[in-house]
């Protein structure tokens, strides 16, 4: 598969179900997968972060900082 080519649905599903792409069974790490939020092993449970994708990790950190800032601002106004 070429760099600019999108993987098929079957390939994406295979990656998600492959135990070698999960660290300790709960952290998804697949450098080939460019999705920011791939589905969890059990899809109905939502999404996870692909820790092999720097954009994904930065998005997660940004979201955490945003929510922490909101909590601080709410507490400050009380």
Explain the overall architecture:
With 78 residues, this protein is mainly alpha-helical. The chain has one domain (9-77). Helix content is 42%, strand content 5%. The chain is built from two helices and two strands. The protein has a two-stranded antiparallel ribbon. The model has no long low-confidence stretch (mean pLDDT 87).
Characteristics:
78 residues, mainly alpha, two-stranded antiparallel sheet, 2 helices, 5% strand, DUF5808, transmembrane
- The secondary-structure class comes to mainly alpha
| Helix percent band | 40-55%
- Helix count from the secondary structure assignment: 2
Number of domains: 1
Uncertain runs are: none
Strand numbers in spatial order across the main sheet: 1-2
């Amino acid at each position: 598969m070429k760099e600019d080519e999108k993987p098929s649905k079957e390939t994406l599903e295979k990656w998600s179900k492959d135990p070698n792409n999960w660290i300790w069974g709960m952290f998804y790490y697949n450098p080939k997968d460019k999705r920011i939020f791939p589905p969890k092993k059990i899809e109905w449970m939502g999404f996870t972060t692909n820790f092999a994708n720097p954009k994904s990790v930065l998005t997660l950190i940004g979201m955490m900082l945003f929510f922490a800032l909101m909590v601080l601002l709410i507490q400050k106004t009380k």
